[in-house]
User: What shape does this take?
Amino acid sequence: MESKTNIHIGEAINEACKSRFDLTTHVSGILREIGMPAHIRGYRHVREAIILVIADQDLICAVTKALYPTVAKIFATTPSRVERAIRHAVEVAWDRGDLQTRHRFFGYTVSGLKGKPTNSEFIAAVAEHLFMLSAS
Assistant: This one.
């Protein structure tokens, strides 16, 4: 049985993003705002991973076992290439992005020692941001 919170969030997301196109457009806007250029391969992989996590929150707990293979299948590639492309996209966004924008999306959730979020931290933070927007 789903909790009221999950049902509320799901209804809010459905209301805010009535179609996959709207959700894709919204995620694309966030990725560009963070500083991820659309011309790199990992951009499409990150966008798809975020959309999949929004549809099934359990995927963020099974990134290597379920999320990467699902994205790999969509783009006719391997899970290891998906992981690498996403890692590269996160690195580029972290280097290019504005500090205030990064702080708004990631706050203090990223270790200062590592310098950038892991793939799953990045995907989870953007998905969570969308959940929060849809819940308000």
The chain is about 70% helix and 0% strand.
